[in-house]
Specification:
Layout: H1 10-14, H2 30-40, E1 54-56, H3 63-80, H4 89-93, E2 94-98, H5 101-117, H6 122-132, E3 133-135, E4 147-152, H7 164-173, H8 184-193, E5 195-206, H9 216-225, E6 227-233, E7 248-254, E8 261-265, H10 271-276, E9 290-292, H11 307-319, E10 331-334, H12 341-344, E11 345-347, E12 358-362, E13 377-380, H13 398-406, H14 408-412, H15 415-419, E14 440-444, E15 446-447, E16 453-455, E17 460-461, E18 465-469, H16 475-483, H17 485-494, E19 503-504, H18 507-510, H19 523-532, H20 538-550
Parallel strand pairs: 1-2, 1-4, 2-3, 4-5, 6-8, 12-17
Antiparallel strand pairs: 5-7, 6-7, 8-9, 10-18, 11-13, 12-13, 14-16, 14-18, 15-19
Helix pairs in contact: 2-3, 5-6, 16-19, 19-20
Length: 551
């Protein structure tokens, strides 16, 4: 097994810019840290833990380390009768690190206090604390061993927020650190590389990697080389010491390819709920975890954690086409992002700006299945009508030119303007004039589910609205199907859910939906669905949709 060797010091890469304040630090509740260690198998009753090597790659204030030490000491007493504090097995039993020196010093102090309370002398306690807690960058360190356990809560940091030299080095070293991946993805890659043959990695982190595009390289790596032992979706719970919107999960991964995966989604973190998915628990609770003989292959999204949903989605995938292949010229897109809605989006017409330069704009709040109720917003459109991506010649539109000049200072602050100063008055997204008159379905991004409106061709969509056009579909039939529970279930599986249970109808989700091909539906069924397109009778929609999806 190959270990990474680094030719330069991590401090040289950071060049004096290593953080002195907490960066991406979200601390785990003790009971959750205990659950993660149980799922990983770091149990004092199962083995002498001092003979294993455990690595905690982002120790923070020591929440995991305190429980790890408690278990290590319990294991020594159980397997050896008492703790020989001078036993050199202890020196290598734990390795923890953090980039933040303040956290390192705090964790060492807490380790010393904990060890002395257990009977360890102060000198030896300090020696063990120094050996166990290291000040280093986990991603830029040449680790000398493979580890039997890699556990913890890696930092939540958007990689584009890192110093450029650091980000560049991370990208060189970690092939999963692509696109807009969060830093924890690189922690996964390095932690997995450092696993021994029998080792297990157990992280609590954001669940976005399991479904999002930026997690694909990591999912491919896991599918190709590793085995997911446990996957717990905790996005509707709060497993952290502070209230944060992190949408977490717990993933336990090892090298035991071919073994089953145990998965569940938890709605709360009550003791009985935790016991129901904890193989080490002595509480009598029925298991809440589903067993999957195989987990998702080839980097595909981890879309379901219970078998009924998994089996349904698998069946739909094998029988039905993707949305954009379900009828001729079916296309998914997103509305316009401006970077300065205060300038580009107005309530009512601006009398001083040419009428041809203002387009009726549909907002998310305007959309209901029964009708699109327009709120009177307009888009001030800087693009020419030719649909070739060119901007208007402002000399031909003096009112528009004066309006943009009035707001030049605000528009010039945007990234799109600093990157292309000659086009400083453009919106972030290109405005395609030909989209306006097309009949289209309009779908708000964040919603409880089933909100799909029909625009006959009056409006241009705002940036948090996705649209669907099609020559092959009767859009009323498609509207009814997209509002059905059959589709909502698919969206819930493919989407990253928000706090409170809201779903995200992003383009990447809509393009993964499976629908019956329009041509396979009977005339009577099409007529029935079209009649129900804007109805509030969900059971009637679902009844017709069931006939369509099961045909």
């Amino acid at each position: 097994m190959e270990l990474l060797l680094f030719e330069t010091s991590w401090m040289d890469v950071w060049n004096g810019r290593a953080p002195t304040e907490p960066v991406g630090a979200i601390f785990t509740k003790p009971e959750i840290a205990s659950l993660i260690l149980d799922l990983a198998g770091y149990s004092p009753g199962s083995r002498r833990l001092a003979e294993d090597r455990l690595l905690e790659p982002s120790c923070g204030d020591g929440a995991f380390i305190a429980e790890i030490i408690r278990r290590l000491i319990s294991s020594e007493r159980r397997h050896r009768g008492s703790v020989d504090w001078d036993d050199r097995h202890l020196d290598g039993a734990i390795t923890a690190c953090d980039l933040n020196l303040g956290f390192v010093l705090l964790a060492r102090a807490q380790v010393c206090e904990q060890l002395q309370a257990e009977g360890c002398g102060s000198v030896r306690a300090s020696e063990l604390a120094e050996a166990w807690i290291q000040h280093t960058d986990f991603l830029l360190t040449s680790w000398p061993h493979l580890y039997d356990f890699v556990v913890g809560n890696p930092p939540y940091v958007r990689i584009e927020d890192l110093p450029p030299a650091v980000l560049r080095r991370y990208r060189e070293l970690y092939r999963t650190c692509t696109d807009r991946a969060d830093l924890y993805v690189a922690f996964f890659e390095n932690g997995l590389r450092l696993l021994s043959a029998e080792g297990r990695l157990a992280f609590i982190c954001a669940n976005r990697f399991a479904k999002n595009l930026y997690g694909r390289a990591l999912r491919e790596m896991i599918a190709r080389e590793y085995h997911v032992r446990h996957f717990l979706n905790l996005e509707h719970t709060q497993p952290f010491a502070s209230d944060v919107s992190a949408y977490p999960c717990i993933a336990v991964i090892d090298r035991k390819r071919g073994e089953p995966t145990f998965a569940a989604s938890l709605d709360d973190l009550e003791l009985d709920t935790l016991a129901s998915i904890n193989p080490q628990s002595d509480r009598k609770a029925p298991t809440a975890a589903a067993t999957f003989p195989t987990w998702y292959a080839d980097g595909s999204p981890w879309i379901a954690t219970e078998r009924k949903s998994f089996d349904l989605l698998t069946s739909l995938k094998s029988r039905l086409p993707l949305l954009e292949n379900s009828a001729a010229d079916t296309q998914v897109g997103i509305g316009v992002a401006t970077g300065a809605d205060r300038v580009f989006v107005t309530k009512g017409l601006i009398q001083s700006v040419e009428r041809d330069c203002q387009m009726p704009l549909v907002m998310a709040a305007d959309i209901q299945p029964s009708a699109v109720t327009w709120s009177g917003h307009y888009l001030v459109n800087p693009f020419a009508d030719e649909d070739d991506g060119s901007l208007r010649e402002c000399s031909a539109f003096p009112g528009l030119a004066a309006y943009f000049e009035q707001h030049r200072a605000a528009l010039m602050k945007r990234h799109v303007a600093t990157k292309r100063p000659d086009c400083w008055f453009r919106t972030i997204d290109r405005v395609t004039a030909s989209l306006l008159p097309k009949p289209k379905l309009v779908i708000p991004d964040i919603q409880p589910g089933g909100i799909v409106g029909l625009d006959s061709g009056r409006f241009y969509p705002h940036h948090n609205i996705y649209w669907i056009t099609s020559k092959g579909w009767d859009l009323r039939v498609l509207q009814a199907l997209l509002r059905s529970s059959w589709v909502t279930e698919q969206v819930r599986a493919h989407s990253v859910q928000m706090r409170g249970g809201s779903l995200r109808y992003q383009a990447q989700v809509l393009r993964k939906l499976r629908l019956p091909a329009f041509e396979t539906l009977s005339c009577d069924l099409k007529a029935g669905l079209a009649d129900m397109a804007g109805s509030a009778d969900q059971s009637a929609i679902d009844s017709l949709a069931e006939e369509a999806f099961r045909a």
